[in-house]
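Predict structure. Chain length: 310.
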Amino acid sequence: MTPPLTADRLHGNWATLMLPINDDDSIDYGRLGNELDALVAAGVDGLYTNGTAGEFHTQSEAEFDAIHALVAERCHAAGLPFQIGASHMSAQLSLDRIRRAKALQPAAFQVILADWFPLKEAEMASCLERFAAAAEPIPLVLYNPPHAKVVLTPAQIGRLHAAVPALIGVKVADGDDAWYAEMRAHCQGLAVFVPGHHLATGVANGAAGAYSNVACLSPAGAQRWTDQMRTDLPAALELEQRIRRFMDAEIAPFIARDGYANPALDKLLAAIGGWADVGTRLRWPYRWIDPAVADRIRPIAQSMLPELFS
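Prediction complete.
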């Protein structure tokens, strides 16, 4: 069993678990187990569940329990730290998920803020305080991506950390130099995680790690790149520029031009990488990208980013 995380031990390249979906919209637990084995074999720093790419918003409570029983079994056997995403649009259901999953002994719980009516700051603190009380002694990580109803400022994140000491980390979109300066000023004692394809820039500016879309493309390659940041940051920054160009040219248009949801892009990346049979299918009612697109883009990715595929 890995012990609960602390802010100073929460860092690096964390890979997301994506749901293989059958034609009848059910979860393929056999393929899910194979995906878990591939992520363990890739040697990632950690694994997390039920972020946006994990389609937590589509799961029944029985499915949530089945997914996480499998995750806990495989990760504990391998000694791989894992975080359970207990997120739900309902704070009451998030609280229930924390209470049920606590026995699985994750290293942390990821949570979102209640999502239908945007919360005021005092309500945010109340929400996280109750989550923390249910999870204790397991800490919390706040998942606050750009599509959250309320995208928090560095100052707001710092105040929430002060109000809820069990909050040890946060996943956010990064910004410019001024944004990083604000994060350093307000978020001391928090592990700040930035987008995976910005990780070298983040590390250079004090970020702790990424819940990584690059790991969707290649979990082992993303881990090699993360390790490189500790030994040759200039080379890692150069690779980041190529990763960004690839994402901007080949992946981002599926949102900006075609209006696909973010999980469709993560599953497309996994299909391009070909490291596990995840498939591109999303659960109803969301559209997914034709897997033939991955066959077209794969040679481009391998040519632009050979370090991720070696």
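Summary: The first strand starts at residue 12 and ends at 16.
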